[in-house]
């Protein structure tokens, strides 16, 4: 069955050449975490191939599709170098074109932003397996399934969209994508899910242990620790009750203790998501954009080899409105929440 909520677009050779030409015009741009970088990429994004601009502008305006895959970007496998086994990646310059590519697409959906408490405050993240983290609920796991989730579900300022660009995936590890058919919920369960009857906690990527010491701000980590100690009560569904958005991460979320109706509704919606889960094995040069208000994503297990050839993705968080997070950012031009 074709699902109109998951679209795939294959770039033509000509379009790919246009993208390469555009990247060459950005050769002088430092790939850092500054608003100057967003300024350049936002202007340049207006010169991406028309078909890409049409797809992404549509995704933003129509709230559909919920996920878009663009295949066929060229990746120079020698140039990007071996898949690192540490973060931060030792030679970020080698993947500047891939980071720029993600930022160009982010600019058509909104603004890229980062977290002071995640991946050392970098704007573009590395998603790769890390020794010792095989069974964690983080992007760096491998042996264990990364259970499907809303990205940073715990945080009120979580992204509107998450972008993932695949640099390498010889293991053909599968990304999961899903959304529930809400017409199958009873009115009672729907009403329950629209109420703040669920506890949510931060995931382990936002801890000092997961970030280099020189990138740490004690205050920001304290705020995250507070969210762990005193978890917020949130709703799973929000927005228009007739056509709500979704916020769910079973690994870090639970119905309020003793709330049987909340538990029942939760079990039902998780089953609805499970039942309709879709599977996409991203290939080198495939870009996945997920609407984080309307779809969950995760990753099936795979075996990491730590031989420099492991699966490697780049990730970016995208907000539709930077002002929403202004009070959580140090200045109007800082991109770190
Ligand atoms: O590895 C994947 O395919 C998805 C990882 C993920 O959930 C993430 O990086 O946010
Ligand atoms: Fe994720």
TrEMBL record:
Family of the protein in this entry: Belongs to the clavaminate synthase family.
TauD/TfdA-like domain segment(s): 133-316
Coiled-coil ranges from the UniProt annotation: none
Residues annotated as binding Fe cation: 149, 151, 297
Protein keywords: Iron, Metal-binding, Oxidoreductase
Pfam families associated with the record: TauD
Annotated residues for binding of 2-oxoglutarate: 175, 311, 315
GO terms for MF: iron ion binding; oxidoreductase activity
InterPro entries in UniProt: Alpha-KG_dependent_hydroxylase, Clavaminate_syn-like, TauD-like_sf, TauD/TfdA-like
The protein, known as: TauD/TfdA-like domain-containing protein
């Amino acid at each position: 069955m074709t699902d109109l909520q998951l679209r795939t677009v294959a770039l033509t050779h000509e379009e790919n050449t246009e993208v390469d030409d555009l990247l060459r015009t950005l050769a002088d741009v430092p790939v850092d975490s500054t608003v100057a970088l967003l300024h350049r990429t936002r202007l340049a994004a207006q010169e991406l191939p028309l078909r890409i601009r049409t797809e992404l502008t549509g995704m933003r305006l129509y709230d559909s599709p919920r996920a878009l895959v663009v295949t066929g970007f060229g990746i120079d496998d020698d140039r990007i170098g071996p898949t690192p086994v540490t973060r931060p990646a030792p030679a970020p310059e080698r993947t500047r074109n891939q980071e720029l590519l993600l930022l160009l697409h982010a600019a058509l959906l909104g603004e890229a932003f980062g977290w002071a408490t995640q991946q050392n405050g970098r704007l573009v993240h590395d998603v790769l397996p890390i020794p010792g983290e095989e069974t964690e609920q983080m992007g760096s796991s491998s042996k264990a399934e990364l259970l499907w989730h809303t990205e940073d579900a715990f945080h009120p300022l979580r992204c509107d969209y998450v972008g993932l660009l695949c640099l390498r995936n010889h293991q053909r590890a599968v990304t999961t994508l899903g959304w529930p058919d809400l017409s199958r919920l009873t009115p009672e369960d729907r009403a329950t899910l629209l109420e703040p009857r669920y506890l949510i906690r931060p995931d382990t990527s936002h801890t000092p242990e997961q970030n280099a010491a020189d990138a740490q701000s004690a205050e920001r980590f304290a705020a995250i620790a507070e969210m762990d100690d005193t978890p917020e009560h949130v709703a799973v569904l929000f927005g228009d009750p007739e056509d709500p958005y979704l916020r769910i991460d079973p690994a870090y979320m639970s119905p309020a203790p003793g709330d049987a109706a909340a538990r029942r509704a939760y079990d039902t919606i998780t089953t609805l998501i499970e039942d309709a889960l879709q599977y996409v094995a991203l290939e080198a040069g495939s870009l996945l954009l997920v609407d984080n208000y309307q779809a969950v994503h995760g990753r099936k297990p795979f075996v990491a080899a730590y031989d420099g050839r492991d699966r490697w993705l780049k990730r970016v968080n995208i907000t539709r409105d930077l002002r929403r997070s202004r009070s959580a950012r140090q200045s109007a031009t800082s991109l770190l929440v």
